[in-house]
Specification:
Blueprint (H helix, E strand, L loop, with lengths): L3 H10 L5 H26 L7 H23 L4 E4 L2 E4 L1 H20 L3 H6 L11 H6 L7
Helix pairs in contact: 1-3, 1-4, 2-3, 3-4
């Protein structure tokens, strides 16, 4: 199987991606990274120097993910013939690995909803169900 790093290098140097598509990817990455930095500044007051490496990795993996997605859209055939028969194109695996890495970095920075609720950044709205109200003795007992 072709490594995802090799796929990223091939895509970076390929002529299949037009300049317009590359600008679109750069614009999306810049917008997303601006919002992540804004979130971090809002919640902690600043972007700490030790987070810069994680932010750089996040930017790199996001750019890879978007480039893989564009390349997959442009594929003529999503199935390749390997020694074990038909297999999905290697770009699918590389894109999935990028997505997993992006999600891990977002979790570590507290940018997912689940992580934000764990860190008490977002308080989910909780409505008491009738059962909860009964258990908490909010309903009059007879």
């Amino acid at each position: 199987m072709v490594s995802d790093i090799y796929c990223a290098i091939v895509i970076k140097n390929s002529t299949n991606m037009s300049e317009k598509e590359q600008k679109r990817v750069d614009k999306k990455v810049a917008k997303f990274m601006k919002s992540v930095r804004g979130f971090l500044i809002e919640k902690s007051g600043c972007v700490r120097p030790e987070w810069e490496c994680s932010l750089l990795l996040l930017e790199t993996y996001l750019e890879e993910f978007l480039m893989f997605s564009i390349e997959i859209e442009n594929l003529e055939n999503i199935v390749t013939i390997g020694r074990n028969g038909e297999q999905p194109h290697a770009l699918f695996g590389a894109r999935d690995k990028s997505a997993i890495r992006i999600e891990g970095l977002l979790k570590s920075l507290g940018c997912t909803f689940k992580e934000a609720t764990k860190m008490d950044i977002v308080e989910p709205m909780v409505e008491d169900s009738p059962l909860d109200a009964f258990i908490k003795n909010k309903i009059e007992k007879r």
